[in-house]
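Lay summary. Proteins are chains of building blocks that fold into shapes, and those shapes determine what they do. In this project we predict the shape from the chain. Here is one chain we studied, written as its sequence of building blocks.
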Amino acid sequence: MKLDSKYFDRIRVRPDREATEKARAPVCAWEGCEEPGLYKAPRGRDHEGEYYHFCVDHVRMYNKSYNYFSGLGDKDIQAYLKDSLTGHRPTWSMGQNGSDAAASIRARRAGARTRDPFNLFGDAARRTEARRPKVRSLESKAFQTLDLAENSAGETIRARYKSLVKQYHPDANGGDRGSEDRLREVIQAYKLLKQSGFC
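And here is the predicted shape, written in a compact code that computers can read:
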């Protein structure tokens, strides 16, 4: 057995990783430097994914003077910064994500929330009646206070409330405070109906 065998050295001694990396590394890209370029630095805005290889001293100098936005105007920089808030991905306005805007406006005007071409869910009128909450005793008294029927629509309730407030408000009665109690009852009745979901 030879004591200076290359196999014997590999068994006994760990190979020097730094030495092998330095041997494989390209030469520093700084002009006039012969050190190994172990550290990567980006080339610039138009060269994404491309790097210079520098030694440690020159990569520090390069990073201090590096400016991604060099050569860009102020408007271009502002546009880039604005796009960076969304990760440079396209965005759409709420409710317009590729849908036909005119069709959605027509559907809203018709009062339809979903399309039901085969009438699977029944008439729209029956659906709105089914969603209407059940009238309890307090709500019944509130309807009586507003002088309305219990099956009155939300718009009718709001219109009646506005007219009663105008009628009983002290400013409309020349400062007479005699109708303040009635005004208070009307306001409380309307609040109760609104919280219960009738308007």
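What the prediction tells us: The beta strands are 39-42, 51-54.
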